[in-house]
What does this fold into?
Amino acid sequence: MEKPNPMNRNDILSGHFARNFAGKPDLIVRAPGRVNLIGEHTDYNDGFVLPMTIDYDVRIAACARPDRTVRLYSADMNKHDTFSLDDVRRLGDKPTWADYVRGVAAVLQQAGFRLRGMDAAISGNVPREAGLSSSAALELAAITAFRRLNALELDPVRAAILGQRAENEFIGMRCGIMDQFISSLGKADHALLIDCRSLSYEPVSMPAGASVVVTDSAIRRELTDSAYNNRRAQCEEGARLMGVKALRDVSEEMLEAHQADLPVVTAQRCRHVVTENQRTLDSVKGLKRGDLAAVGELMNASHASMRDGFAITTPEIDTLVEIQQNTPGCFGARMTGGGFGGCTVALVRDDALPALVAAIEAQYPARTGRTPQVYVCRAADGAGLA
Ligand code: GLA
It folds into this structure.
């Protein structure tokens, strides 16, 4: 998909602001979406993840108001929302775009921050409902707008935690910390190794000569939240039965020793998480030595583990991954994100990129009847001024 010139996007957003509110915005902020290179369903198990921001983001043009009213305009949906900071509620059962901003306003105030009202025009180019964290990007963009307009003392780690809290408590999705953390703390041309227990992190330089290819499978599953919460519960059950705080504390040997204490399916779920943590750490080592073949093999193994052990892939996604794994010059490919559809991520040698895109575009529709959307992504900086 074509990436519009960023300056131009700011001008267009300022135009929306001027038409819907008065005058020019005080500032324009942005927060990126993300792709997870490896480390799936490990974040809420206190484990390790290796996501990367993508150069697609959500932008907000905003002005502070003297009162306690927040007026929002979504340029992408041509919709308005108005609410008072003294009474922040969900709009309806199914969360809408405005609920993410409302949620952020609610948790910031619960955390003790004093907010003024604002007028804000919002627009983004992160594909929605594709598993690329457009909602985390919206949350972090809204937090950044409130932070700057109110001069809040809020560091990027706390911003991520509050974004996750908005998602957990206001939206009702029990996600881990990964998506908000990378949108807040990502660094251009780097992936980020995050220890989801200590919240320490380390930027890992992305290798020259290889591209990150994100492909939307066009598979959407409505039941994602319930399946996600089910896997989370199975992991928590496994940790409880093994007498540890979280699966982060379990080694492969320990899991082996506890086989008889765990229901078969629970043991399979736990095996995915335990081995995925190790694959994530090994991938960081591979990236640091420039051993992309090793990283690719770990990505392939991660996919197999999500397919066979964690059971969160679909036949179409498996097909899409297989097409990429079979293309010469592709180091490895896997599903990325929560599962049951969404996107795949592949690491490919630059000179093999055209062949990979051609293989996806020819074979995936022929084998599944679905139309893929391919994005060649670079890591952008985390949330900040646009
Ligand atoms: C979703 C959640 C994340 C993480 C991934 C799976 O993206 O929002 O917190 O759990 O699924 O790795």
The longest strand covers residues 48-64. The domain at 6-202+381-385 is CATH 3.30.230.10 (Ribosomal Protein S5; domain 2).
